[in-house]
Amino acid sequence: MTDLSDAIARRRTFAIISHPDAGKTTLTEKLLLFGGAIQLAGAVRARGEQRRARSDWMAIERERGISVTASVMSFEHDGLSFNLLDTPGHEDFSEDTYRTLTAVDSAVMVLDAAKGIETQTRKLFEVCRLRDVPIITFINKVDREARDTFDLLDEIEKTLALDVSPVTWPIGMGRDLNGVYDLSADQVLLFEQTRGDHIPEGLDMPLDDPRLDGLVGEAAAAQLRNEAELVRGACPPFSLEAYRAGHLTPVFFGSALRNFGVRELLGGIGRLAPPPRPQPAAPRLVDPLEPAVSGFVFKVQANMDPNHRDRIAFFRLCSGRFRRGMKLKHPRSGKTMAVVNPVFFLARDRELAEEAFPGDILGIPNHGALRIGDTLSEGEDLKFTGIPSFAPELLRRIRLDDPLKAKQLKKALEDLAEEGVSQLFKPLNGSTWIVGVVGQLQFDVIANRIEAEYNLKAGFEEAPYETARWIDADDKALLRKFADANPSAMAEDRDGALVFLARNAWTLSRAQQDFPDLRFLATREQH
Ligand code: G4P
Question: What's the pTM value of the predicted model, to 2 decimals?
Answer without folding.
Answer: 0.81
